[in-house]
Amino acid sequence: MKEIVCDRLSKDYKGKNTIRALDSVSLSVSKGEFFGFLGPNGAGKTTLVRILVTLLKASSGYAWIGGYDVDREEEKVREIIGYAGQDSERSAYFRLTVRENLLYFAHALRGIPRGIAKERIEYIASAIGFDSKLDRHFIALSGGEKQTVIVIRAIIHNPEVCFLDEPSKSLDPVTARRVRSFLKDYARENGITICLTTHNMLEVEEVCDRIAFINRGKLAFTGTPIEFKKQAVMKEIIEISTSRLEDSVEYRLLKVHGVSNIVYHNNVTRLYCEDAFNILPEILRVMKEAGFKAPVRIAEPSLEDAFAFFVNGGRE
Amino acid sequence: MESVTSISRIFYMAVWRNLITLTRYKVNLLFSIITSALWASGMLLFSLAFDSSILGRTVGTTNYVAFIVFGVSFQSWQGTALWGASSMLQSELSTGQIDYTFTCPFSRYRYIVSNVAALAIQDSIFFLPTFCVGLWLAITTLTFHGLLLGLLSVILSVAALVQFGVIFAALTLRYRQVTAVFSFFNFIIQMLSGMFIPIQILPALLQIIGFSIPVTFGMDLLRHYVMGTLTIFDPINEWIILLIQLALLSLIAKIVVSYLEVKAKEKGLHYI
User: Looking at the complex, does the CB of residue A105 fall below 8 Å from at least one CB of chain B?
Assistant: First the structure.
């Protein structure tokens, strides 16, 4: 069953120079799926999410959530969604405690009876190890803790579909993992569909069943993270543990048959090539002749490689 | 029925939220109440500068002190009613909370009105000391029946002013910087609604402007029932005008908020 359906969604921000933020995006997300929206900054991910959560009106196209039209049945859509936006660190009442904030949002704005709201606050907070922070003022929390409150707020009413816009951006790795693990289990147990935008590839690999890659407003890919890597990285990679090659060595390596590109990234030199196993001896020979010694290995393409591939429009 | 439950729930929780914040900072609360009472005392000095015979001829009382203290008591609500919705939306916009709020399932208009009404309840804490000073000064003409009718007129006129504030909030979001516009309206209300100066002594043109201000008749009725002053029109007519103003302003406020939401959805809340 499809929980989210987008049909040729486009969004233009009109002005002196009209900007097309989203360009005819069509995709669907199944019920209970953990779905990731990937793409570089300004790609249109947040615009898409904001249309789906009824904050923005699409310039053309249609979208449905839980069978409700996001434009014409926005009240129905709002009843079944949860949302944590990007501006989360200040988006609660500073002078109230975490518990008071969550109670206010759950009871006043989501209509959960007070008693149930209190129980749910306790349950979720203890599940992610946040119960000791419940009676602290929101203003006194760290950025990551505030972010955690905002994530709890998004799921406190047990929505059918939850949209999380970069939910782990301020979280430390341990908290991020705990929150991810909780969200994954919580979504499975309650049949909740979760859509998140993220730049965190680890997060994608850990939790996303499927992803959509958006670049310059257009949908470039939908599928599983494994398919994403396979489709993106047609080339294989030989990694040399050096931050930079001498120009002459780089020139000679590029001359090796099968090497198509050399990229310097994170103190590692990456040679994109075809049939890495067979050309490895030739690479080693060129390095030896140049008197250049460094550890060399055939590397597994990562999601970051795939990300870079799609951002560059299909070039490694 | 659901919508009624929803508006009462938001209102109740907003009052709860405001009172928690207010009572948590006790020194600030204490000084707010003291300042409110001091305002009333300050008016005693202010009133010495006025000719009480003019007041007697036009309003039917020479008790200018009570007249002006009731005007001051309205001030504590006027700021909230006029500016409350606007500052609340501005604050939610700057913190990003508006994104979450606007994805929740309730009418925007009801949300704004519930929150401003909750702020008005909070401000009653500052209204009451001044109001009580006014009652004490008008003790010779005060009756229980009069007090009830007076309070009802206050509630209706504040409710009408809240609608005015909602319209103003929409303008704020649309045009961003409207502090000067707010100051202008604030001045108009203070000068032309009979808050400090009896509307009967104003030039005819200014009186017409004064009649269109939501608090004018509310204040006039309050003074009539509590102090026994003469009303501008027949009291029945003033009640009718007050109710019409409330209905009309509510309708306009709803339309303006709907328009605002359409604009916000087209451009994005942060870009309108």
Answer: yes
List chain B residues with CB under 8 Å of A50: 99, 268
d(CA A134, CA A149): 9
Domain boundaries, given as residue ranges, for chain A: 2-224, 236-300
Asked whether residue B210 is assigned to any structural domain, the reply reads yes
Residue pLDDT, tens place only, A17-76 = 888 999 999 999 999 999 999 988 888 999 999 999 999 999 999 999 999 999 999 999
Side chain identity, residue B221: L
What pTM was computed for the model? 0.79
**Cα–Cα nearest to A97, from B201, B74, B20:** B20
Residue ranges of E strands in A228-299: 236-240, 259-265, 268-273, 296-299
Instruction: Tell me the per-residue pLDDT of A140-170, one tens digit each, with 9 for 90 and over.
Output: 998 888 989 999 999 999 999 999 988 887 7
Element (H, E) at A40: none
Task: Name the residue among B215, B79, B72 with its Cα closest to residue B157.
Answer: B215
Cα gap B164→B102, rounded to integer Å? 22
The yes or no reply on domain A236-300 and CATH 3.40.50 is no
CA distance A146 to A101: 11
For residue A85 the two structure tokens come to 């936006």
| Dihedral, A123, A126, A130, A135 alpha carbons, nearest 10 | 70
Cα–Cα distance, B216 to B226 (Å, whole number):
16
Q: Are B235 and B224 in contact (CB under 8 A)?
A: yes
Question: Which of A109, A136, A160, A195 to substitute to test the interface with B, most B CBs within 10 Å?
Answer: A109
Superfamily of domain A2-224: P-loop containing nucleotide triphosphate hydrolases (3.40.50.300)
CA distance B81 to B86: 9
By C-alpha distance, the chain A residue nearest B24 is: A95
Name, in order, each residue with C-beta under 8 angstroms of A291's C-beta and a sequence gap of 6 or more: none
> Is A275 in a helix, a strand, or coil?
coil
Under 8 Å between Cβ of B243 and B156: yes
Provide the pLDDT for residue A290: 84
Question: Residue A192 corresponds to which tokens in the numbers above?
Answer: 């909740």
Q: Measured between CA atoms, how close is A30 to chain B, in angstroms?
A: 21
